[in-house]
Design goal:
heterodimer; A: seven-stranded mixed β-sheet; four-stranded antiparallel β-sheet; globular; B: about 110 residues; mainly beta; five-stranded antiparallel β-sheet; 11 strands; about 55% strand
């Protein structure tokens, strides 16, 4: 199995500031994803983090607002930029190891973000 | 946007009873998966069923898939208080690579 850690686990931020969330995996994985879960809602895919190239964003999410880095096969960061209260959510990273069935992902514990 | 809807949105049962959750989706899929989330934390993968499978079991879990109706159900037998969580179905859409599209979720509460 893949063990995933996220930092920070939670944070309270002021509007207009930015927060960078880190995702670390204990083994090399090809695919990493970032999701957002708004309060009481389901998960929405933000982007696929690609190693060595720009992330692939889903409709409704843009790089200026959610820049993503993926410097190697075990680490990725998601930045939430110029935050507003609407960005208050749980942000989760996930990985798809090569030995798992298509789409079957491991999830990190999440980062609970509150914007005031 | 969500691929599917789940019902019920919330379910409260007594320990020892069975819990059934349903998931409907909209497009052709490669597989359908069920995940559990405890108290807004990370998700845990429970079970995967491929589009050419109709039923699958794992411990106290039973999943069915009806591709003609674009629906799936998750049955948890002999529920325990520790099963209290939110349950999400997620689909890998045909031609969608490895991306997961999540349903709306069912909040299950198992009372002693």
């Amino acid at each position: 199995s893949a063990v995933i850690s996220q930092k920070p686990s939670r944070d309270i931020c002021q509007r207009g500031t930015s927060l960078t969330i880190q995702c670390q995996v204990d083994s090399q994985v090809t695919m990493m994803f970032w999701y957002r879960q708004q309060p009481g809602q389901s998960l929405t895919l933000i982007a696929t983090a690609n190693q060595g190239s720009e992330a692939t964003y889903e409709s409704g999410f843009v790089i200026d607002k959610f820049p993503i880095s993926r410097p190697n096969l075990t680490f990725s960061t998601l930045t939430v930029s110029n935050m507003s209260p609407e960005d208050s959510s749980i942000y989760l990273c996930s990985v798809l190891p090569a030995w798992r069935e298509r789409g079957e992902q491991y999830f990190g514990p999440g980062t609970r973000l509150t914007v005031t | 946007s969500q691929q599917g809807e789940e019902d019920p949105q919330a379910l409260s049962i007594q320990e020892g009873e069975n819990a059934t959750m349903n998931c409907s989706y909209k497009t052709s899929i490669n597989n359908l998966q069920w995940y559990r989330q405890n108290s807004g934390r990370g998700l845990v993968h429970l079970i995967l069923i491929r589009s050419n499978e109709r039923e699958k079991h794992s411990g106290r879990l039973r999943v069915t898939l009806d591709t003609s109706k674009k629906s799936s159900s998750l049955l948890i037998t002999a529920s325990r208080a520790a099963d209290t969580a939110s349950y999400f179905c997620a689909t890998v859409i045909t031609g969608g690579g490895n991306k997961l599209t999540f349903g709306t979720g069912t909040q299950l509460k198992v009372e002693l």
